[in-house]
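Bumping my old thread because nobody answered last time. Still need a sequence for this structure:
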């Protein structure tokens, strides 16, 4: 089925959230980074301003800034209202209220939209999707995947997750995935089976706690790399 903007709910996170979600150190931010499934996050825009090296991939980037902006406007209030109705699923500490969430997300997505046209011209926003990426082996030092793998476990099989993580490990020496929960703030149904399959086929797999928790119990990321043994 063709990718349709009508089926997308664009939702972009801030640079500070990316740093916390993936426990990115100052040294990490000097590496060449791939953001997979970044959507309208402003991580690429902000890191580029800081002289970082980053490429983002998402099927969303097939569309123009005007089309993405219109879709954001169409869906934004619905997402915030859903969050208000499900406030018990979230930890309101770093982000203190649905109103503050709206401000943070809106600012992040506006920053993305401002950067998007230039970023596409420079090759920093590429239209692509897992489990196949248009990059050479080892093209990146770190690949991060935010709120796609595991979050949509009801929509994508364990086999899709394994194939996607192997592909990320092909193009980057280290892969970081956050969160390990699926929608509804429950542990992903694929977590154990995916980790077991990767471990059995030569990958080093670790769960690491990170300094970020918005979904309850969503303070862990998966770190994966091809074993050097």
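Sorry it took so long. Here it is:
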């Amino acid at each position: 089925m063709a990718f349709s903007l009508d089926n997308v709910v664009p939702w972009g996170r801030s640079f500070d959230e990316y740093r916390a979600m993936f426990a990115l150190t100052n040294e990490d931010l000097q590496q060449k980074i791939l953001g997979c499934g970044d959507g309208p996050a402003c991580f690429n825009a902000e890191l580029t301003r800081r002289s970082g090296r980053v490429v983002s991939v998402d099927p969303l980037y097939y569309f123009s800034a005007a089309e993405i902006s219109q879709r954001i406007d169409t869906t934004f209030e619905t997402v915030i209202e859903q969050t208000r109705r499900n406030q018990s699923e979230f930890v309101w500490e770093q982000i203190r209220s649905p109103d503050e969430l709206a401000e943070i997300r809106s600012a992040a997505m506006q920053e993305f939209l401002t950067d998007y046209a230039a970023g596409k011209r420079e090759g920093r926003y590429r239209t692509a999707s897992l489990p196949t990426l248009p990059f050479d082996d080892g093209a990146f030092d770190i690949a991060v995947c935010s709120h796609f793998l595991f979050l949509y476990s009801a929509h994508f099989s364990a086999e899709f997750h394994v194939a996607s993580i192997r592909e990320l490990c092909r193009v980057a020496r280290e892969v970081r995935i956050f969160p390990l929960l699926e929608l509804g703030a429950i542990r992903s149904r694929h977590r154990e089976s995916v980790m077991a399959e990767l471990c059995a086929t030569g990958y080093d797999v670790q769960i690491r706690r990170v300094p970020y928790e918005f979904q309850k119990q969503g303070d862990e990321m998966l770190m994966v790399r091809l074993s050097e043994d």
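The chain has one domain: 5-226. Let me know if any region looks off to you.
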